[in-house]
């Protein structure tokens, strides 16, 4: 794994923690819930080898970034992008993310098209509202109950869940890191997925005015939503990596990085 230079800047909800490479074409990376910027440690090196400057941000309440004092929405998470770009003296950047981070990247592109050169949506939430909101209630009710249990059983349960999703493709050390990332959260555990399933990604995608790509993998549990997003915006190329799951960033880091670098190369 490759680690970048770490820093803080001030944002609307307190301190924002991020990590950044020193040079290259700026690419903001936004993680999925309930992880933080270290989700991308295995793609930093292949991105930099393609001339990309990865800038990975801990969204509010995740990792070492301060949490909001209210139940956040995707629009709140998106407010961390510009303060980080300003702190680094970057006028424009490509913005992308994975799962929850993809929704946040979309919102940043909508709000700041003058600062976003391109958008990478690594997973979309294109599904009927009834299904999306039903998933929100299911996830929220389950995650609101998550908390410390005797003997650290809550950590065992989280490890078991992530090990199931990995299906033998991720090392036990990395799965342990996933658990650590989740436990570092500075806000309530359920905030991230609640925000994600509350977000109307369909309306947002329709309104995106910057160049964009849809990045998915055939084994992702929300792959069908990526196909639906491409049908909604056929002008946005859909790149599908074979196989994998929700951990495609670690399962196929070179393919994931190459897909993004190829897209960035097409931008004016």
TrEMBL record:
GO molecular function: hydrolase activity
InterPro entries: AB_hydrolase_1, AB_hydrolase_fold, AB_hydrolase_sf, Epox_hydrolase-like
Designated name of the protein: Alpha/beta hydrolase
Short name of one Pfam family: Abhydrolase_1
Record domain AB hydrolase-1: where: 26-223
Organism: Sphingomonas populi
Listed PANTHER family: MONOACYLGLYCEROL LIPASE
Source superkingdom: Bacteria
The keyword Hydrolase belongs to this UniProt entry's keyword annotation: yes
Keyword terms, alphabetized: Hydrolase
Keyword Hydrolase: yes
Gene3D superfamilies noted in UniProt: alpha/beta hydrolase
């Amino acid at each position: 794994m490759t680690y970048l230079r770490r820093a803080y800047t001030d944002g609307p909800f307190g301190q924002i923690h991020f990590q950044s490479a020193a040079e290259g074409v700026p690419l903001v990376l936004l993680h999925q819930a309930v992880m933080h910027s270290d989700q991308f440690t295995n793609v930093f090196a292949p991105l930099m080898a393609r001339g990309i400057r990865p800038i990975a941000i801990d969204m509010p309440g995740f990792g070492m970034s301060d949490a909001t004092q209210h139940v956040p929405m995707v629009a709140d998470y998106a407010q961390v992008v510009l303060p980080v770009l300003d702190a680094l003296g970057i006028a424009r950047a490509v913005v992308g993310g994975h799962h929850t981070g993809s929704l946040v990247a979309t919102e940043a592109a909508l709000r700041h098209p003058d600062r976003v050169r391109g958008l990478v949506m690594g997973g979309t939430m294109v599904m009927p509202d009834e299904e999306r909101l039903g998933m929100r209630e299911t996830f929220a009710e389950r995650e609101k109950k998550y908390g410390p249990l005797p003997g650290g059983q809550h950590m065992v349960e989280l490890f078991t869940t992530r090990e199931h999703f990995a299906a033998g493709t991720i090392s036990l050390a990395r799965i342990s890191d996933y658990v650590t990332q989740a436990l570092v959260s500075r806000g309530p555990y359920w905030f991230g997925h609640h925000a994600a399933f509350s977000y109307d990604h369909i309306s947002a995608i329709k309104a995106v005015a910057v160049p964009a790509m849809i990045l998915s993998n055939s084994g992702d549990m929300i792959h069908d939503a990526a196909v639906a997003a491409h049908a909604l915006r056929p002008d946005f190329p859909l790149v599908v990596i074979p196989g994998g799951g929700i951990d495609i960033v670690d399962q196929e880091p070179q393919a994931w990085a190459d897909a993004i670098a190829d897209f960035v190369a097409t931008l004016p």
